[in-house]
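Predict structure. Chain length: 132.
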Amino acid sequence: MGSTVAESWERFVMSETPAATPSGKLSREQKITNVVGLGIVLIILAAALYFARDNGVNAEVGECVKGTGSNDIKQVACDNPEAQYEVVGKMKDKDQSEATLASCRDFAGATDVHWEKNSTGSFLRCLAGVTQ
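Prediction complete.
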């Protein structure tokens, strides 16, 4: 018999110990995968920011928009030939029933109204025609 229970246990534990872990360095394939993945995330983020910027929701007083549908607007540069309106007033938390030209009487030159509701609230914009 020559060996004790403790010695037998130690030999068992030592034989079941996994191989040493890698040094923490990434393989070439892992590096490429990480770079490509990061690139894809950056492209998606850039596209989301671009389309959010382009939306009429962000049009503030002094900026210009063009009509793209029955009640849709798109922000454009005021020197762009497509610019149809300048935002001369903006009110938050207005109901659609308040989207009348009478609501814009305090904003000089207002000729049209645009109402929009999204995840951040509802907005009423008073618009004045742009002359080019």
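Summary: The helical segments are 5-16, 28-54.
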